[in-house]
Amino acid sequence: MKHLQITTIAAVLLVTQVSLADTPKVDVSNVRKVFDNGHHNAFTDLTVFKGVFYLSFRSCPDGHGVSPNASVIILASKDTSEWKQVHTFSVPKRDTRDPHFLVFKDRLFVYTGTWYSGDGPAKSNVDLELNLHLGYTAWSKDGAKWSEPTLLDGTFGHYVWRAATFGEKAFLCGRRKVGFEVGPKGEPNEIESLMLESNDGLIWRKRATFQETSGDETAFLFDLQGGILGIGRRRGTAQLLQSDPPYTKWVRRNLDRHIGGPLIAKWGGRMVVGGRHSTDRGPKTSMCWLVGSELHEFAELPSGGDNSYPGFVVITPTEAVMSWYSSHEGKSSIYMADLEIRTDNGADLIRKHGGNTGEELKAEGK
């Protein structure tokens, strides 16, 4: 027990020291609207595949709610300035929602969770049945020719969300009713979150349960040894999750805020967390440094009302680009911005502390 206390105190001191030095300022520039067709456009993701940038989001003439008229739109760009639509798809009688990219085994996948909605828009979320949920994907080998929407085996009754890879396997966040219970519709508290695993990106199976109740949107980031850091949305404050193979034990810590549409990524050796932050000025899309188990906000993007679900791509150790959606200018539209770490804040720190975050969490949790 003494050893545990000493280790925890040492870890906390280390986190404190790093947090004071390793939260550089970030310049946000070139904020631009990249898509607006008059529909509700939302839930972005961003990636690079074979030297080309890809941006994906949901577009629906019926608004934010569940509708079979929703579609997934995929844009491509060589420079993030000029975008061309390369694919769009929908699934009959289903709402294609929350598209996310995965580059896996020389293919670009776009995953979407789909509510069953029938022939028309759902009148209320309370009427939706999570047990009828299915995951779908469209994939491409070159970014130009795409597959038809393909059902993901093993995802029936699962609301699939962000994906990640480690080694030769792909992983998806999937939430479902505990025991597939036939009970209240919508998304009650009796929701568990699973990490689903696949060898080919198409056939999925359960690997681990990381939330036994109130499961929700969760983003994962793997380190070189297969350790996981995750950011999980919750009805209260978001949680920081940590686990090592075989992922049977999880350390969970409450963060200081609710995060809608969470993102976690590594940039120049540091950890970045993004999503919707509830402020006294309303909901805003924000980006933070994650240092130890603390968030340090470095950017609030132009946003308001219905907004968030950022995508993020690192270009250099000090440069990145991000996407998000927002309705602060009327109809919800898709936006992008360039981010740059100020080098006058000590860019050499990129090589010092950023890679230790996972180790600090492990020390603190043992």
Give a structural overview:
- By secondary structure, this protein is mainly beta.
- It has one domain (2-365): Neuraminidase (6 Propeller), CATH 2.120.10.
- Helices cover 8% and strands 51% of the residues.
- It has two helices and 24 strands.
- It has a four-stranded antiparallel sheet with strand order 1-24-23-22, with no helix packed on it.
- The radius of gyration is 20 Å and the shape is globular.
- 44% of the residues are buried.
Q: Key features?
A:
single chain; 366 residues; mainly beta; Neuraminidase; 4-stranded antiparallel beta sheet; 2 helices; 8% helix; disordered N terminus; disordered C terminus; Glyco_hydro_beta-prop_sf; Sialidase domain-containing protein
SS summary, helix count: 2
CATH fold label: Neuraminidase
CATH class equals Mainly Beta
> How are the strands of the largest sheet arranged?
1-24-23-22
Q: Measure the end-to-end span.
A: 10 Å
Largest sheet: 4 strands, antiparallel
Ranges where pLDDT stays below 50 over 5 or more residues in a row are 1-20, 346-366
Give the name of the CATH architecture. Answer: 6 Propeller
Q: Percent helix among the residues?
A: under 10%
Average of the residue pLDDT scores: 89
Topology as a string of helices (H) and strands (E): HEEEEEEEEEEEEEEEEEEEEEEEEH
Q: Cα-atom Rg, whole angstroms?
A: 20 Å
Secondary structure layout:
Layout: H1 2-21, E1 26-35, E2 40-49, E3 52-60, E4 71-77, E5 84-89, E6 94-104, E7 107-116, E8 134-140, E9 150-151, E10 159-166, E11 169-177, E12 191-198, E13 205-211, E14 218-222, E15 228-232, E16 239-243, E17 251-254, E18 260-267, E19 270-279, E20 282-291, E21 294-300, E22 307-316, E23 319-326, E24 333-341, H2 357-365
Antiparallel strand pairs: 1-24, 2-3, 3-4, 4-5, 6-7, 7-8, 8-9, 10-11, 11-12, 12-13, 14-15, 15-16, 16-17, 18-19, 19-20, 20-21, 22-23, 23-24
Helix pairs in contact: 1-2
